[in-house]
Hints:
Blueprint: H1 2-26, H2 30-66, H3 72-99, H4 102-106
Amino acid sequence: MDSLIIAVAKYLLYVMVIAFALVWVFKEDRRGKLDVAGAAVIGLILVGVFLVIAVAGILIAAARVAAHAHHVQDVVAGLLLGGIAAWLGTLLATWLIARFDVATRLGIQRRSGEGSTARRR
């Protein structure tokens, strides 16, 4: 079982990249490729920004403990509460977007039948 976990941890990312590349090459039309490329670039930028913010938060928390301004328990509780609040905010935003069909109204999501050749028969 351990060898399976190790193999998945080592190679799952590569399998996902290959699967994405195959879908990209064989299933998407030009418009679909542009949409996916744009989403990938924006996603990578957002991941970088959020990673910098997370590292900064952890460094500030460590500095507060080192300066004896807070106890370790206070900092850990604050980080956990912040993570839970971010998770709940994400759930709420996802629900609101789906509930009020915001993506279609703003024109940022393809309606069924448009775009990708993967949906055509």
